[in-house]
Amino acid sequence: MGTLKMYIHPYLYMPVQDKTRRLSSQLISQDITSLHGLQTISTYNTTRADASVENLQQAYQTMLAQQQAETEKLTLYRAAADGARLAEWEFHNAVLAMKEVIRGQYGSDSDQAQAVGFKKKSERKRPNRKKSVAIAS
Question: Do the domain assignments include residue 133?
Fold first, then answer.
């Protein structure tokens, strides 16, 4: 027995939309151009609520408002990230300065130097000399 294959007309089949990805700016621009073109058609009338002129205008205004909010928040985020980065560098440089002072005041072999993260000079492992092996030929 054969399998029954059904033909679905491409205009009747709507693919599943992945709304987690952003639309390209080119596609958005084409949509805006289409909306502006629709505004020149005075006889446009539909019973579909999602395709009405009022709904299209509302969706367009909502998109513009959300894009503006996104831009404002991105600007605030970048400013906050810059501030945090600069504060991290300020803190790091202050710690480096403190370590220099500790080493200068108390010495490299002191308990105070060890307390701030330095290794005592006396506890460092000295390098071993490698004995040369004579190669006999």
Answer: no
CB 53 within 8 A of CB 38: yes
Which tens digits make up the pLDDT trace of 51-79? 999 999 999 999 999 999 999 999 999 99
Are 35 and 56 in contact by the 8 Å Cβ rule? The answer is yes
Number of structural domains (the chain) is 1
Residue 29 in contact with residue 37, Cβ under 8 Å?
no
- Could you give the angle at which helices 25-38 and 53-106 cross, rounded to 10 degrees? 150
Nearest to 98 by CA among 119, 122, 116: 116
Q: pTM of the predicted model, to two decimals? A: 0.62
Q: Rg for the chain (alpha carbons), in Å?
A: 35
Of the candidates 113, 90, 111, the one whose C-alpha atom is nearest the C-alpha of residue 100 is: 113
**Within a domain: 29:** no
Q: Does residue 134 fall inside a structural domain?
A: no
